[in-house]
Amino acid sequence: MENGLSTRRFWAIALGVVLLDLVTKQIAVAALAHAPVPVLGEWLTFRLVFNPGAAFGIHVGAYSRWVFMILALVALIVLGSMVRQTRPTQWIRLTALALVCGGAVGNLLDRIRSPRGVVDFIDVWIGAFHWPTFNVADMAVTCGAVTLALVLWHEGRHGGETTAERAGPAEA
Predict the structure, then answer these.
(1) pTM
(2) Phi then psi for 168, rounded to 5 degrees?
(3) Element (H, E) at 121
(4) In whole angstroms, what is the distance from residue 18 CA to residue 68 CA?
(5) Residues forming the active site
(6) How many Å apart are CA 73 and CA 53, to the nearest integer?
(7) 127, 76 contact by CB (below 8 A)
(8) Distance CA 158, CA 119 (A)
């Protein structure tokens, strides 16, 4: 990623995710400490939960906090390598990487700050189906990871070229 605009765009998205995540978590801790707040009937509730594990309640025992902190740091190193390999024309890939990095940093900061775990507060029910409680960082990681998987799959099918690069300068 050598283009200045691409670098600024990456950092703006990643830092935006971290800041939005931090602010919403602070509001959740202050506003939801005593009782959950129904938003859309039984479908959507804001409920304060501290998750010492990982996504979907994955827990590895007494050392979960440290294990997931180390895994997040390793993931950020791998993602950083992917960012450096991303060409400025690959803005969708860069956006996806920024979302995943921003979300990973947001949840990592929670693990560093508190032994209670990551602050989750968005609780979704659809009938009898309950989605695990999540936060803004989780949404960014999920959206970014799905987008990145699709981009990498598409690049794999087309020899690493993006649609804009295949079209050529006149058509891009």
Answers:
(1) 0.84
(2) 90, 165
(3) strand 118-126
(4) 18
(5) 120, 138
(6) 16
(7) no
(8) 40
Give the CA count within 13 Å in the CB-facing half-sphere of 51: 24
- Vertex 52, ends 79 and 131: CA angle to 5°? 80
CB of 5 closer than 8 Å to CB of 88? yes
pLDDT in tens, 36-76: 999 998 899 999 999 886 665 666 666 777 788 888 899 99
Whether residue 104 contacts residue 141, with contact meaning beta carbons closer than 8 Å, is answered with yes
pLDDT in tens, 92-149: 999 999 999 999 999 999 999 998 989 999 999 998 999 989 999 999 999 999 999 9
Confirm if 103 and 137 have CB atoms less than 8 A apart: yes
Tokens at residue 2, please?
A: 């050598």
Q: Which residues on adjacent β-strands are paired with residue 49?
A: 120
Write out the DSSP string of 98-119.
Answer: HHHHHHHHHHHHHHHH-TT-EE
Question: Phi/psi of residue 51, each to 5°?
Answer: -105, 105
